[in-house]
Design goal:
The complex is a heterodimer of chains A (about 325) and B (about 450).
Chain A: E1 2-6, E2 9-13, H1 19-26, E3 52-57, E4 70-71, E5 81-84, H2 89-104, H3 120-128, E6 145-147, E7 151-153, H4 163-171, E8 178-180, E9 187-189, H5 203-207, E10 213-215, E11 228-233, E12 242-248, E13 251-256, H6 271-276, E14 284-288, H7 296-299, H8 315-321
Parallel strand pairs in A: 1-5
Antiparallel strand pairs in A: 1-2, 3-4, 3-5, 6-7, 7-10, 8-9, 11-12, 11-14, 12-13
Chain B: H1 18-23, H2 28-36, H3 39-49, H4 61-67, E1 77-82, H5 91-98, H6 100-114, E2 118-123, H7 128-143, E3 159-164, H8 174-181, E4 205-209, H9 210-214, H10 216-222, H11 224-229, E5 231-232, E6 235-236, E7 238-245, E8 251-256, H12 261-266, E9 280-284, E10 293-294, H13 295-299, H14 311-315, H15 318-321, E11 329-334, H16 339-353, H17 359-376, H18 382-395, H19 403-427, H20 429-438
Parallel strand pairs in B: 1-2, 1-4, 2-3, 7-11
Antiparallel strand pairs in B: 5-6, 7-8, 9-10, 9-11
Helix pairs in contact in B: 2-6, 2-10, 3-4, 3-6, 5-6, 16-17, 16-19, 17-18, 17-19, 18-19, 19-20
Classes of the chains: A alpha+beta (about 325), B alpha/beta (about 450).
The complex binds flavin mononucleotide, iron/sulfur cluster (SF4) (2 copies) and FE2/S2 (inorganic) cluster.
Chain lengths: ~325, ~450
């Protein structure tokens, strides 16, 4: 076991644990936000840089601080390491900068986005975003596309976390989509318009931290905070059949996988469960599912929250839409 | 121009071919290393020479080699980084073009020292014409028993393959290079693990620059000790400097480390002074990624000492008043050059070349380019200057690979040293544009 201190809290973890996972063991506020890392996806992490932390003491053997902030999701802990997350103003500043970068080309179309209310980027912006936007440049724009008949891709909203790429690598023999081009014109695509049709393709929707990949069977049906998440299951030959049903009254509006407190799926589910089974009679109800997150679903009442910068519209944009 | 080590024989007609090269002492170092020296002796000579990586970072080569995981039962690889795409840098291409056998010679000895049997030269895609040159040299070396199975009758076998890239600057970053070599998208890897443990195909790998590897043959010939006596302090040996911009004699020069920058710029043996008798305004001394310095700071350090072409002297003053030797791409600006325009041009490059993997670089490079475009085209605001400083600061140190810094430093340093010029673009855009139009 290895001892590591994060924001003045000491914890013991196994060798090879990353700083982020050590922080998750402590839980609560010391956990750095992760937009690209996904514990169940091999190779994920290191890209979004929201999880940057300061290592003020590398190890007992080498007490020097690390020269740069490090990505906590991909840096293993060492014995005697001291990590600063929220206790370091440098980390907070850096994270503010990262949020600004992530929002730079983001369309801020939360009012019409199905992900709103359960979006990691919204949560992150609530936590670390700035009041005003500093950019006046044109945002990059991509046309909307369909990935198969059930999945919509809004490339404008994508933060290029690569999770949907890794999930396809992991769940299928042959990944059909990937990141095309480079830099800020990179996009998710299949190169030649190719429908992604395998039984587990729907999981890209659940791993996507933003509203770039959304469920077409749920499109514009409701805001998530009006729905009641229930744990339900059924016999399924392809997956465990354990899902979350999002209900309004007695109607099932959509099915997703069951997500833990970090927004990660407990298990991947098949497309049949996700897209085809929308009748109450298809499912056995276990009980309500608690969403342990700071996001608006749990708050469940918008009026108590102050107007947040993220949903404050940009001036020019509002006018042109009126 | 005494003291040449790499380019000593470059003027001999036909030196590109094997026979002339061999007749002038070529491949003697291979014979010496393979027949008379053990692997660890070769390593020791390289360490003793004090040779530092010529690809940009200046990391001691002997030390890098000592990190290679020799306990692993996987094969080991040596990869020669010939992706040279940094604006202002064109020394590797010159070397490979004129002295391809010098590189092959270095690769053979290095592979021997590292216990490598397969070596790749990853060459920039645009250097298509050099692929043939290198392949011809490799073929000749094969024919004369310096490559292939049981070289010179010893137990050591080596094959070298040339692999052209597809035209991405980022593939010069060593881990992106390895991804690309494996046939994948050229995204830099997240480190650790370092290539010395998990490099090409997950095997222990050393990546070195062309110029670094080309110096290995001469080091074996002259001995590490003698090599370390050339140069100055921890900057041993010679360095190829590719000089361009507003000078009378652009080109590639081999200099002994420690040459004063002033001599390099004004001596007719080297740059031969500023073109059209203009005044020197600024220099980017180590390829486009290193900080730009104004004339007074490139000629003398802030402490008033003469600035020398060494890793240490150029870095004197850190980022406040110093810069870096980098890859040795020496770009000279005269009094007529517009720093804002130049900085905009550089950000255009980095924006275009960012792989897009991590958010600060992907978004920040584009943002800086757009703001600088406005400034240069007379649409800037005073707050834009501080905005640029802030963007650069938010990128720096927060990215996966050093391209982020490479994009941030030129902007930060240009504003640090030439803020008035940026302000002038905001205050009197019409005059500035008119002036530039007339030039
Ligand atoms: C964006 C980027 C581009 C690079 N391009 C090159 C290049 O074209 N050639 C090169 O030798 N090194 C390049 N490097 C440096 C390499 O990553 C690596 O440090 C070098 O090949 C090591 O060789 P050396 O130790 O012999 O210098 C680049 C680094 C970065 C971050
Ligand atoms: S579409 Fe979603 S999951 Fe895929 S890279 Fe973009 S943000 Fe990540
Ligand atoms: S710093 Fe830029 S080039 Fe390097 S990994 Fe990040 S996005 Fe890619
Ligand atoms: S979660 Fe660590 S970099 Fe994205």
């Amino acid at each position: 076991m290895i001892k590591v201190t994060i924001d003045n809290i000491l914890i013991e973890v196994d060798e090879g644990t990353t700083i982020l996972n050590a922080a998750r063991k402590i839980g609560g506020k010391v956990v750095p936000p992760a937009m690209c890392y996904y514990s169940k996806l091999k190779g994920s992490g290191g890209k979004c840089r929201t999880c940057l932390v300061k290592v003020s003491h590398s190890s007992t053997k080498d007490p020097r601080p690390m020269p740069k902030l490090v990505a906590s999701c991909s840096t293993p802990v060492q014995d005697g390491m001291v990590v600063e997350n929220l206790t370091s103003p440098e980390v907070i500043d850096a994270r503010k900068g990262i949020v600004e970068f992530l929002l730079l080309n983001h369309p801020l179309d939360c009012p019409v986005c199905d992900q709103a209310g359960e979006c990691d980027l919204q949560d992150l912006s609530f936590g670390f975003g700035m009041e005003e936007t500093a950019t006046e440049e044109q945002r990059r724009e991509f046309p909307m596309t369909d990935i198969g008949d059930k999945i919509k891709l809004h490339m404008n909203r994508c933060i290029l976390c690569y999770r949907c790429v890794y999930v396809a690598d992991q769940l299928t023999d042959q990944r059909l989509h990937g990141i095309l081009y480079r830099g800020d014109v990179s996009e998710i695509g299949t190169f030649i318009q190719n429908a992604i049709t395998n039984d587990f393709s729907g999981n890209v929707i659940d791993v996507c931290p933003v509203g770039a990949l959304t469920d077409k069977t749920f499109r514009f049906k409701s805001r998530v905070w009006f729905l009641k998440p229930m744990n339900v299951h059924r016999e399924c030959s392809k997956c465990s059949g354990k899902v979350t049903a999002w209900m309004f009254g007695n109607e099932i509006y959509r099915i997703t996988g069951r997500k833990d407190q970090y927004g990660e799926l407990e298990e991947y589910i098949c497309n049949e469960c996700r897209f085809e089974k929308k009748a109450l009679t298809d499912w056995v109800i276990e009980g309500p599912r608690h969403i342990k997150r700071q996001s608006v679903i749990s708050a469940n009442h918008y009026e108590r929250m102050k107007m947040q910068s993220i949903i404050k519209p940009i001036e020019g944009l509002m006018e042109s839409q009126e | 121009m005494g003291g040449k080590i790499l380019l000593a024989n470059i003027d001999i007609p036909g030196i590109r071919g094997f026979d002339v090269y061999r007749a002038n002492g070529g491949y003697n170092s291979v014979t010496k290393a393979l027949r008379e020296m053990s692997q660890s002796q070769v390593n020791a000579e390289v360490t003793r020479s004090g040779l530092r990586g010529r690809g940009g970072a200046g990391f001691p080569t002997g030390l890098k080699w000592s990190f290679l995981d020799r306990k692993s039962d996987k094969p080991r690889y040596l990869v020669c980084n010939a992706d040279e795409s940094e604006p202002g840098t064109f020394k590797d291409r010159y070397l490979m073009h004129h002295l391809p056998h010098l590189l092959i010679e270095g690769l053979i000895i290095s592979s021997y020292a590292l216990g490598v049997n397969t070596c790749y030269i990853y060459i920039r895609g645009e250097f298509k014409y050099l692929v043939g040159v290198l392949e011809k040299a490799i073929k000749e070396a094969h024919q004369h028993g310096f490559l292939g199975d049981r070289i010179l009758g010893t137990d050591f076998s080596l094959n070298i393959w040339v692999h052209p890239g597809a035209g991405a600057y980022i593939c010069g970053e060593e881990t992106a290079l390895l991804e690309s070599l494996e046939g994948k998208r050229g995204n830099p890897r997240i480190k650790p693990p370092f290539p010395a443990f998990k490099g090409l195909y997950g095997c222990p790998t050393v990546v070195n620059n062309v110029e670094t590897l080309a110096a290995i043959g001469p080091i074996i010939n002259m001995g590490g000790e003698a090599y370390s006596k050339v140069g100055r302090g921890k900057s041993t040996g010679t360095k190829l400097i590719s000089a361009c911009g507003s000078i009378n004699n652009p080109g590639v020069y081999e200099i002994e480390m420690g040459l004063p920058v002033e001599d390099f710029i004004y001596n007719p043996e080297y740059c031969g002074g500023i073109a059209r008798d203009r005044y020197l305004k600024a220099v980017i001394p180590g390829g486009s990624s290193v900080p730009i310095l104004p004339a007074e700071l490139i000629l003398n350090t802030a402490k008033g000492e003469r600035r020398l072409l060494t890793y240490e002297s150029l870095a004197d003053g850190d980022f406040e008043t110093g810069t870096m030797l980098g890859s040795g791409g020496f770009i000279v600006f005269d009094e007529d050059a517009c720093i804002v325009r130049n900085t905009w041009n550089l950000t255009r490059f980095y924006h275009h070349e960012s792989c897009g993997q991590c958010s600060p670089c992907r978004e920040g490079t584009g943002w800086m380019e757009k703001v600088l475009y406005r400034l240069e085209h007379g649409e800037g605001k005073k707050s834009d200057i501080d905005l640029l400083v802030r963007i650069a600061k938010n990128i720096e140190g927060h990215t996966i690979c050093p391209l982020g810094e490479a994009a941030a430093w030129p902007v930060a340093s240009a504003i640090r040293h030439f803020r008035e010029e940026f302000e002038e673009h905001v205050l009197h855009p019409a005059e500035v544009i008119e002036k530039e139009r007339r030039l």
